[in-house]
Amino acid sequence: MSLDAPVPVADMPSLGMAMGGPLAGLSITAMLYGISVPQLVIYYRRYPNDPPLFRYSIVLLWILDTLQLALISSALYFYLVTSHGNYQALLKFTWTLRSQNTVSRVIVVGIQALYAVRIWKLGRHFSTVLLWCSYLSVAATLAVAIYAIYASYIVQNFQSLSSVSVPISTVFATTAVTDIVIAGVMCFCLHKGREITRVSSTIKIIVTLMRLVIMSGLTTSVCSFLVLFSIIAWPDSLIFLAFDMIISKLYMNSLLAMLNYRKIPTELAINLGHPVSTPGSEVIHLLP
What we know:
- By secondary structure, the protein is an all-alpha fold.
- It has a single domain (13-285), classed as Rhopdopsin 7-helix transmembrane proteins, CATH 1.20.1070.
- Helices cover 73% and strands 1% of the residues.
- The chain has eight helices and two strands, in the order αααααααβαβ.
- The chain has helices at residues 15-46, 52-82, 95-123, 128-152, 165-195, 200-233, 239-260, 266-272, and strands spanning 263-264, 284-285.
- The protein has a two-stranded antiparallel sheet.
- α3 (95-123) packs antiparallel against α4 (128-152), α4 (128-152) packs antiparallel against α5 and α5 runs antiparallel to α6.
- The longest helix has 34 residues, at 200-233.
- Residues 1-10 and 264-287 have low confidence and may be disordered.
């Protein structure tokens, strides 16, 4: 349906059904963004000597995260303020919504790629098969993300979203599976590291890291599945956009939390083949 043609009153979207979900998503997104900022400061203060790949990637991802929040805010400002009272505008799929979807997909794939790099550094000592499982999962997420981004630029209005439900569902299903694979492989690597050390303090920290990995993987996977559920349960609403807005912030916070909690005693570093500065060093970095 053309946006220029009049839409029957009966077909007009309810403001609550149309913008209620995205508005709630913006509120939670802003809150999660606020949590990520102090974590970012802690990371750069605590680990100034991390490899350049991680230091530069983190700041780039945070800039993209900031951009996504700005795009979401701009989109909702258009719908709720600029177009106040113009129900025709509620049907329009703005370029800011398309762009925030693109930025979100880049953030998710980028963070999963960083996890894959970490798995390579740890897992190469244990299982090549599991390494390739994580790599292929990330590659699959990248492929379907490109597909979903392309599909989002085909859609002209919200009434035609049903025509791209397959790529939307596919990208979130693949993302959830990849999260589960990454969490499983990282837990396996940490469990192997736990087996080769007898230091109780090291074991406690490894157990805590395993819990963080599991919680991070479950949180992002559940959010992806909520997107799928909302698409199926409320196909005529934009509730799924609320979870879509949140997911990249969950990734950013989980990555920063993982990076900021990664000190273990020297023994495990030696067993895993990591260099240690001095024989008396108290701690080394598990990540990166």
